Amino acid sequence: MDFSQHVFISDVHLGAFSSETNKQIEQDLIALIQFCKQERIKMHILGDLFDYWMEYPEKGFVPALGKHVLDAFEDYNKTVAPALYITGNHDNWTFGHFEERGFEIEPNFRLLELNDKRFLLMHGDGVAANKIDFPRAAFHRLLRNPAFVSTYQKILSPEAGLATMKMFSSVTRRRNNHNPEPLNRQAKKIFGRHNLDFIISGHDHVPRVETFSRGDYINLGTFFNHRTMALYNKEGIQLVKWKAASKNFLPFEGIK
Q: Is the Cell inner membrane keyword given for this protein (predicted)?
């Protein structure tokens, strides 16, 4: 199915904040999902929808996070089309629940073509592919290693395992983000080696558009804070801000 409009979001980090803040994030995101359903806009999630998501398949444990958001996505996925979900470094321990909700799950990266434009979509913490030449850090490779995951889940109960990872992820989220230079350098290198028009990611929480000689790098920023995302339509692609109250997109004019 062809879509005339596409939305790309990342870094919602549901579950990382106070109850009041989480509720507002959920309400604004559900409003976006319902708007995309009504307008038939294709949705793409580029990682860290949750903070932290960890399923225990052998024990049938699924985190009690974002149920209303997942219900809204499930309705969208069945009514419009499966939303693409590229899992990030905070929500990659998924073992079937997202597929049951109707998502199209991608644990690595996705190449997309829209109207003869080539897009590389990724979360931003690296990819497992030599041809892209953006390897994940050793720690992120460890967290995704099946042997490590199996051992971790045998040692810790679902509740203890999730609590431990949430505590650690809150520290790394504050320490590692808000520096745009590493991903800017990486995007420039990828453009130099591959025929791409756009690279889109999240991860470092700094919304921006960086123009290089061979293409544009778009960082989606954070939905939890900025409500920013990329909107693609017949006019091209731009970084926008979602206004849930008025149900529309406004051009993003920078962090204030």
A: yes
